[in-house]
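cache lookup: miss for this entity combination. No prior model stored, computing from scratch. Input as submitted by user K.M.:
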Amino acid sequence: MTDETLRRETFPAGILGAGLGTVERDVPPDEPPPLPPNAELALIGKPIPRINGVAKVTGATRFTVDVSLPGMLHGRILRSPLPHARLRAIDVAAAARHPGVRAILTIARPDDPDASVVRYVGAPVAAVAAVSPNAAEEAAALIGVDYEKLPFVTDMDAAREPSAPPVYPPGAAPPGHPSGYPARPDLPVNGNVRGPATDHRGDTAQGFAAAEVVVDGEYRTQVQTHCCMEPHAIVADWRDDGLTVHMSTQFTAGVRQELAAAFGLPLGRVRVVVDGMGGGFGSKSQLGAYGRIAVVLSRQAKAPVRIALHRDEEQMDSGNRPGTWQRLRIGARRDGTLTAISLVSYGTAGVTVGAGVGNNAQALYACPNFESAQHDVFTNGGPGCAMRGPGNTPGAFALEQAIDELAERLSLDPVALRDRIDPSRARREERRIGAERIGWQRRRPPGADAGPVKRGLGMAQSIWGANVQLNAGCEVRVMRDGSVEVLSSAQDIGSGIGTVLAQTVGEVFGLRPEAITVRIGDTEFPGGGPSYGSRTTASVTPPARTAAWRVLSVLLREAGLALNANPADLVARDGRIMVRGDAARAMEFRAAAARQRTDRISAVAYRSDDYGGFKRRMGDAALAHEDLGGVQFAEVAVDTETGVIRVERVVAVQDCGRPMNPLLLESQVQGGVLMGLSYALFEERLLDPHTGWMVNPNLEQYKLAGARDAPAIDVVVLENYQGNSATDAYGIAEPSNIATAPAIANAVYNATGVRMRALPMTPAAVLAALGKVPARS
Amino acid sequence: MQRPLSRRALLRGSAVMTTEIGMAKVAFAAGQEAAEQGAAAVGPDAVPITLTVNSVEHALRVEPRATLAETLRGPLGLTGTKIACNHGACSACTVWLDGLPVCGCMTLAIEVGTRGVTTIEGLAMGGALHPVQAAFIEHDAMQCGFCTPGMVMSCAALLARTPAPTEDAVKAAISGHVCRCGTYPHVVAATLAAGARKA
């Protein structure tokens, strides 16, 4: 497309209430005109209840675990009971004799040097498919495995020692990983330490020399598990004419690509379907070992095979947020100007990589001199993977406390210091709103309460890239009877993208959202991109509006003939197509559709580039120029006798471009805050250093925030227009989770005068920090 | 492999056992039946039982180790009841026995006896949503929706015994539920609204 074909348009731009103006953009000719601000719209930006709400509250939603196919078998994976071992022999004869067994697969194999070693408790060793879940479990238990125990290490600090048992032999460590930092390939590996991945700008030596104040702290964050309520689940149905997979996945189209590549099938012979999707949080982004196992078993047994992980498998081998150690040094002048930031981190994602701490320190604040060295440490623990704001969530815990500490050293208010060093317009407005809502002026010096229960206020910020999937698309159809469909392989992970698509398409046609049939979560439809990286809304709503607009323009041509009007003078509103300014000349939407010669009018559109361009492209994905902001304020009460922290209130002020549905956004932000609170106070995967077993692989000893731990959560979402796409919308899931733990930690400091530098902030940790009990080793 | 043994061991030689699960007194009805027939134990093979679910009687054969949640989801095809921990730790499988909420994963199908089971599929009557269901939609008290059926069952049971509960009472009623999406604030708001509407 040449530049001459582009159309100059004027878009709303800026933050509503803080300088809303306009921006000129060049728009492709086949994309719709600018969408006005939300106040001028009928559906977009309105709190529309989710369209699949009735199905969800009546139990009618069909999740993957609810799928039952005729002749379906049940798969069960035999897992390693040892954290590091070489298989000497594996004997499946007894399992094969079990009357219910239909297929057996050995995964770890003594004769294969690449597959003879297991490296964590829970690693898949073999699998069976049988006629019932119980038969599969019985048969799996009949598989005999002869292990040669190998030395192992589960503790990250111990694994860093030169004398530590190697998790991988030289040259065998996994290469880069697509998520998290530092994950790039070609990094050096020494013992169990991979990296560093380094970044720098300016000259930090000069920067620290010029500093008048330096804060220097070490921080630790724990391993967190995803705890999706629906376990990882798949029903694989291998047929001669193709493979159909029902899977609880965050990326139907991506899983289809993985399956096609893994099994040598053309894409057109692989179909991936998800209806209800019971949570993912990053852990259901890929096909995974269990997925491949189910497909192989199905091919072998010539029958559909279902695998749904049990809760202990979920906890041990479905991914986790890596644990980290970070040292952060920040130099500043008396006026708050930052002169240097230095970050060193070590993190462990168990047997895999991707345990970095993100780009907070690098990108959140203006600072001319920066250096970072991030390392992965291999341990004999279950593999980590992306989890809601990977990298930046543990990273923000360190950076945002360091900035809080710096503010105190400079005798500056933490909000005022950030006003000086944070260039983001959105976060400036978010700080203003948040401070007002929480009553920041009530904040007192640390430890001001005389009694045993001490109250405090704290705040913290987040930074997260505004991700876009470039090969995301939608089809919109208007059938001859006037019914409207929107179709995409995009999946609803729980954020309610189907509802947002109905709003988007309904807005174009002047129809109610319930008049739009939403068909998503199926690779038979145009590829909708992944539901990770907070990108679904940014990726699929612009092509949905574009496709609907193209269909509408065909409808308006027909209506123009019927109404004897120029199509350019027609508008679609309230179920009718009418001449602008002459409501008497109108026809029903249905009547216009019925004039079609064909059975349908259909258009498929894909995500075009942001009209203002991208900051960066990475294969099928890209980053918008403006990052997603987010500022959170917390009010806590700390009982200094019991060590219990109660979070009483959180104010979360976030931005995501154009907010599409404030009701759904409020849900999502509350969820992000609660996951952050749970990370801050409760959750921790505990591995027994003597056996390598997770000692809390459940939902009772792996403590999660419950209803009684939930504070009052005020959610404010800015309208931050940028003129970048047909909807100008971006995501919110991850940014809403990143700032919570440091905001709580800063509030705890304000309450007690004691800084909590490690997560989770349990009562024992609080009492230890207060010097009332010995610290846990 | 261990489960059937331990559960059978529980039943062996016991005429009537009672246990507290949530608020419900649960009797081992099949054990009772077995005792009446002079048998010391049932299983491991399937035994005939009658289950009354959402006012419909079902005659079926279940292994004594089968939980109520498994039986509802499997043979009866009522998949609205979810299993998330299978451990009594998350309450996703909450159903009612004679109106009282219990964990379906901690209740054996054979111990239900004559008590009426109500599942999420039976809550909406004659096509009209229960007020709690309607309020859940209005307040968006759900995200992924996997814990939602159990949440609805607990909140509806609360309103049945306390028509206009306090916020604390709602939080207490759902304190055994795990929702990873973090819907608690909207669940509380929805239940309070449903209570206010009914009262």
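stored under new cache key. Chain B touches chain A through 57 residues (CB under 8 Å).
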